[in-house]
Amino acid sequence: MDDMRASTVGLMQDSMPKVAETATASNATSSFFTNYPLMSALLAFAIAQGSKFVASWYRENRWDLKQLVASGGMPSSHSATVTALSMAIGLKEGFGGSPFAVALILACVVMYDATGVRLHAGRQAEVLNQILCELPAEHPLADSRPLRELLGHTPAQVVAGALLGLVTATIMHLICGSGARS
User: Fold this and answer.
1) How far apart are CA 159 and CA 86, in angstroms?
2) Would you give the end-to-end CA distance of the chain in angstroms?
3) How far is the CA of 108 from the CAs of 46, 65, 68, 83, 114, in angstroms?
4) What stretches pass through the bilayer (predicted)?
5) What is the reported pTM?
6) Confidence of residue 13 (pLDDT cuts 50, 70, 90)
7) Number of C-alpha atoms within 13 angstroms, CB side, residue 178?
8) Mean pLDDT, all residues of the chain
9) Which residue, of 17, 19, 37, 143, has the greatest Cβ tally within 10 A?
10) Where are the domains of the chain?
């Protein structure tokens, strides 16, 4: 009888870590999909990139799958993403806390970079590509691949992305209601 009790206890101990692992994995998946700031940011990104995809089809009468992951264009998906994240954190955690401050600074840096460094790098790429086109065929760089020109955003594209992020986070907050607050 003691042997049977010992083996039952041993079986229970062996299975406990597996039950705990399953519960933890299920909890992690559940918390991922209920993470209001993360879902707001991802939704804003998807809407921004999706609108570029549809606009591309409207302009060119063909589907261009590259638009789903391309940078540049209207609206700025980077701005939409970081603004939705900041707004969602502010609505959930409060606008006076450290998490909102970190998210806001991140958003400002990303948007500044989009209209500054990346925009000007794209403009330089345009000039360099024009120079490459004018090189004689025997020049060693004549066969160089053109540089990507659409890297950054105009201020209007960044503002449109930021407004999209604000609206997305606010609507998600209204839909999630009190469940969005900790």
Assistant:
1) 15
2) 51
3) 20, 29, 24, 9, 10
4) 36-58, 94-112, 156-176
5) 0.68
6) low
7) 0
8) 76
9) 37
10) 1-33, 36-116+152-180
At 50, give phi and psi (nearest 5°): -65, -40
3-state secondary structure of 147: coil
Q: Which residues of 132-157 are buried (b: 16+ CB within 10 A; e: fewer)?
A: beeeeeeeeeeeeeeeebebbbeeeb
The owner of tokens 């053109």 is: 146
Token pair in block for residue 109: 């840096």
Name the DSSP class of 142.
T
Output the furthest CA–CA distance in the chain (Å, rounded).
Answer: 94
- Whether residue 106 contacts residue 127, with contact meaning beta carbons closer than 8 Å, is answered with no
> Cβ atoms within 10 A of the Cβ of 85, count?
24
Q: Token pair 């519960």 is at which residue?
A: 23
Secondary element (H or E) of residue 52: helix 36-60
Give 49-97 pLDDT, tens digit per residue. 888 888 777 777 777 776 666 666 778 888 999 999 999 999 999 999 9
Place of tokens 């909890």: 27
